[in-house]
Amino acid sequence: xxxxxxxxxxxxxxxxxxxxxxxxxxxxxxxxxxxxxxxxxxxxxxxxxxxxxxxxxxxxxxxxxxxxxxxxxxxxxxxxxxxxxxxxxxxxxxxxxxxxxxxxxxxxxxxxxxxxxxxxxxxxxxxxxxxxxxxxxxxxxxxxxxxxxxxxxxxxxxxxxxxxxxxxxxxxxxxxxxxxxxxxxxxxxxxxxxxxxxxxxxxxxxxxxxxxxxxxxxxxxxxxxxxxxxxxxxxxxxxxxxxxxxxxxxxxxxxxxxxxxxxxxxxxxxxxxxxxxxxxxxxxxxxxxxxxxxxxxxxxxxxxxxxxxxxxxxxxxxxxxxxxxxxxxxxxxxxxxxxxxxxxxxxxxxxxxxxxxxxxxxxxxxxxxxxxxxxxxxxxxxxxxxxxxxxxxxxxxxxxxxxxxxxxxxxxxxxxxxxxxxxxxxxxxxxxxxxxxxxxxxxxxxxxxxxx
Length: 452
Ligand SMILES: NC(=O)c1ccc[n+]([C@@H]2O[C@H](COP(=O)([O-])OP(=O)(O)OC[C@H]3O[C@@H](n4cnc5c(N)ncnc54)[C@H](O)[C@@H]3O)[C@@H](O)[C@H]2O)c1
Hints:
This protein is an alpha/beta fold. Helix content is about 40%, strand content about 15%. Strands 3-2-1-4-5-6-7-8 form an 8-stranded mixed sheet, sandwiched between helices. Strands 10-9-13-14-15 form a 5-stranded parallel sheet. It has a two-stranded antiparallel ribbon with strand order 11-12.
């Protein structure tokens, strides 16, 4: 008899939630409205869900309230509309969680100074959720993290409320796989993984995500979804390291790494394109693999590929600076007092994100060696660089005018933003060092271009 009652209660909460998802009436709270959370909040609000964006950053909360956008992947008009329609509200008051049917966690997961997982943001937000947890709530962790976080860090905190997972509330890991700037694959058409603590958790979350995402894939546990996400980013880190190592070897052997890769990638199977560059950046590739290697230590397991890929990618900014010195010396110039115009400082084409950007490291190293550095980036108006011996150096993006290009001893392409007119840069430059193959389409007839 008792079992019957329990089963009925469980059915009720799950079915009640699913009915709200179908009607798009479930109140969705997004904790952390950054690169991941804001697009997600707008997407859910666009289809009619009442969404509340919660953040500790008062400026971001105020900007959304005014209908102002700060994330490039979000369309400004769409943001304005959902705010005006009252579908998207923002707040710094976490008691709003008490009204939410769904809570999506999109807070940062950086590394500490000792390069270990910094879970303070997840722990903090979980504490807030626990204060307001109520029966019939779905909690989904979308932040990237090591396998075990959902069940070892979040679940125990939520369980202190006395509510039972899979029965009273539902907990899943569903990693965000967004690729900022990617026009072809958006949140909607990128397959979504869902791994619940129980089958009921997975089913409830699948019903939720299925309302806005074309394909939702069920995993048998949160750990599978967590591991899959960190594996995806480790795969990228390792393959980028491999092509970076090839770039160094090709330079030594006098072979064009770009032509070699173009030739290799003509094979229609068994190989995938990855390209070298000045290093890796962003919130994911330089960070996530180290979440996995940290966890692996608990199992006495050395993750040698991760360490090697990390080392290889980390040496790239220093290598780029060595090449700059060589190029200048061949032209009778010394690095100290050379005028260097950097093109692009964001970590990735057509984004404004400078987190962990290797370009910042390259510029800091050039400044430390006495070069006069200025930059152009259509997405990054200002920069503060920490430079050895000089402290904080503030720079601002200059307009890309012929006189600025001509004045430089070297134009250094660090990010291949698509809005830059590289033909004009080539015409006006004395010399160019292209670390991204941004000028590759123009051909090899120009002798003022040196490729990575
Ligand atoms: N940026 C990407 O391309 C990307 C892609 C996939 C996954 N991820 C993962 O998504 C997560 C979020 O990354 P992001 O790039 O959106 O970070 P972000 O820094 O752009 O945004 C995080 C937001 O969380 C807020 N925040 C911090 N602590 C909070 C708290 N206790 N409560 C509420 N809000 C809080 C911050 O103020 C910030 O606005 C990370 O785990 C990241 O690895 C990022």
